[in-house]
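Pilot study result, target chain (272 residues):
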Amino acid sequence: MLAVLAAILHDAARAEIMPRFRRLADSAVRQKTGPLDLVTEADEAAERAISAALASHFPGAVIVGEEATSADPSRLNALARAELAFVVDPVDGTANFVAGLPLFGVMAAALRYGEVIASAIHDPVGGDTALALRGEGAWIETPDGRRTDLHVSAPAPLHAMSGNLSWRFLAEPQRSTVCANLPRLDSAWDYRCSAHEYRMAAAGHCHFLFFTRLMPWDHAPGWLLHREAGGYSARFDGRPYDATRTDGGLICAPDHASWQALCDALLAPQTD
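Predicted structure:
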């Protein structure tokens, strides 16, 4: 399955995404819910290509793509009961793609009755693909077949932790609480691209990820990649990640103790 999934994402990126990179006309870009929530001709064409290829290779599988689901949110309801389903993000980091920044990816994950069993995150610019298979690890594979295993970073004290933190979708008062607590960490940033953020964390290049909007195409592929690279993650309330739910936040860390430290430091209001 993984080899097929990787090839499908690679082919869609080569045929539909990269030829449009830094060549988009204004008419090829539309806003969905706001100025950072965009869709382009590349997103739509790549999703059509990926969905058609998945349907051909896996007849009967449920396919839940970001753009198709934007038009029909009820498609999400099929994930929990499908024997085999795929979630697809044809261009993750669309705002970066539109801006001409080479920081975007193509993501897909396979689910069985709502459980994430395989994932692929392709970097169209670099040409390689991060892959994970439940229970069998995570790695990056180049087009010529070279494979590098992925491992999350070693745990570190809270004041030495750096990572990705996306707070713009947090509601008040939690938004102000988290922002006020940022100085407790070494550093935090937001690349506007969960594909590369998950790849960084799984490769040990940062300590944590902090997300607040859990659409399955944004997080199911990366969550499995991080887990199979040895990481620990849980929702803000401590419950496990569930790809069939979009509410609540997610913290990914090297281990449970690091997750708890981040949760306590970022989500607890400061006291005088």
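One observation from the pilot: The chain has two domains: 2-149, 158-267. A full batch analysis is planned for the follow-on phase.
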